[in-house]
Amino acid sequence: MKKALIIIIALLSGCAALRAQEVPDGYVWADSLVFTPINEVDSTLAGKSIYSVLPDNVQIDQSGAVRSLMSRKVEGKGINGYRIRIFFDNSRTARGDSESALYRFKSLNPGISAYRTFSSPYFKVTVGDFRTKSEALALLQSIKPYFPGAFIVRERLKYPALENTPSFKVDTLKFLRSANR
């Protein structure tokens, strides 16, 4: 694992130097996805208030208003993230078309969340809940044959459930490859 990391770092530093120059003849820039394992989340506090698990001898002296404000902030705020828009239309048949796009996506990808919304006058179908653009890009590449007009959008996401947290992080790596390939 350490050797692979060293090789990736060497490639990145070499690519950064090459990027400042022009691309050599016979080569093109290509994208690749890099999957990095991440540590599992400790789920002992899942669904619990931090105050309920403190030992009996610990006493917190703070206003109840502060505690309620912090609870509301965590529950309602969410995080910035990315989704993929697979449908966006305002035609007369947009309602039915958005329902069929949602159904088609759910039948092809049953484990991925999908949302159908109406913002006057548009019906929209967006899918996935991704923290990084690289994660969204991985799904976008796999659904492009079925939804050729799909594109990535930045949206506000709810905090993900602990059991749905991925065990790896996805990043995009640019490298030079032979154009004759």
Order of helices and strands: HEHEHEEHEE
Helical run tally:
4
CATH architecture identity of the largest domain: 2-Layer Sandwich
Which CATH class of the largest domain applies here? Answer: Alpha Beta
Q: Any idea how many domains?
A: 2
| Helix proportion | 25-40%
Structure description:
The chain is α+β, with helices and mostly antiparallel strands and 181 residues long. It is 32% helix and 30% strand. The radius of gyration is 22 Å and the shape is flat. The mean pLDDT is 78. The chain has a 4-stranded antiparallel sheet, covered by helices on one side. A two-stranded antiparallel sheet has the order 1-6. It folds into 2 domains: 50 residues, no CATH class; 79 residues, 2-Layer Sandwich (Alpha-Beta Plaits). Strand 3 and strand 4 form a beta hairpin. It is built from 4 helices and 6 strands.
Helix-strand blueprint:
Layout: H1 2-20, E1 27-37, H2 64-76, E2 79-89, H3 94-108, E3 114-119, E4 122-130, H4 133-143, E5 151-157, E6 168-178
What are its keywords?
alpha+beta, Alpha-Beta Plaits, 2 domains, four-stranded antiparallel sheet, two-stranded antiparallel sheet
